[in-house]
Amino acid sequence: MDKIDRRILKTRQAIQSTFLQMLVKEGFDEITVRNITEKANIGRKTFYLHYMDKYDLLDRIVDDHIAQLREICDQKKDIGIIEGSILWFTYFEQHKSFFAALFKSKDASSFRKKLLSFTIGEISKKINEDSHPIIDKQIFLKFLGTATMGVLESYVLEEIDRDMESVATQVVQLYRLTLERRNEAEVYRHIEKTRLNDTLS
């Protein structure tokens, strides 16, 4: 049984390794299952024993990255917010070629959706559930998540001419500023509501 497991693992590693090399060199949109099997020196039937298609293969790899990012987010709880942001951006720096290839792809939309959903989920954990902002929470989270993704994509694609620590630090500063403005809006709303109630009574 162990031999079969090792064989399966070895085959999957070969498929993923070949896929990742092609992803960086050729881009996701140009990859076909036939290309992968030829370069990995395996049969098409063998490929389909492990993955449904190239999208399924990509999803599995992206899920692995998100699992690692989730571990980083757990680590961030024990350090400062700026240090945590640097840790987050460091991960994308270490895997820049992979993420750059996906950000450039037109066909890898599931990657964007998964990463955005994960990012919004992590931001949501930091929002006070008992607050009642003027702006709808769902819209607020979508705004912050999309903004974070936009900066991340521009950094990975080297559209931002700044070092990694500078980008990570400024993202935190913008995040804090946005939350401060949101809190100010909540306080103002509370004051106005109290004033109105006093007037009516």
From TrEMBL:
<keyword id="KW-0238">DNA-binding</keyword>
<dbReference type="Pfam" id="PF00440">
    <property type="entry name" value="TetR_N"/>
</dbReference>
<dbReference type="InterPro" id="IPR039532">
    <property type="entry name" value="TetR_C_Firmicutes"/>
</dbReference>
<dbReference type="InterPro" id="IPR050624">
    <property type="entry name" value="HTH-type_Tx_Regulator"/>
</dbReference>
<dbReference type="InterPro" id="IPR009057">
    <property type="entry name" value="Homeodomain-like_sf"/>
</dbReference>
<protein>
    <submittedName>
        <fullName>TetR/AcrR family transcriptional regulator</fullName>
    </submittedName>
</protein>
<feature type="domain" description="HTH tetR-type">
    <location>
        <begin position="9"/>
        <end position="69"/>
    </location>
</feature>
<feature type="DNA-binding region" description="H-T-H motif">
    <location>
        <begin position="32"/>
        <end position="51"/>
    </location>
</feature>
<dbReference type="InterPro" id="IPR001647">
    <property type="entry name" value="HTH_TetR"/>
</dbReference>
<dbReference type="Pfam" id="PF14278">
    <property type="entry name" value="TetR_C_8"/>
</dbReference>
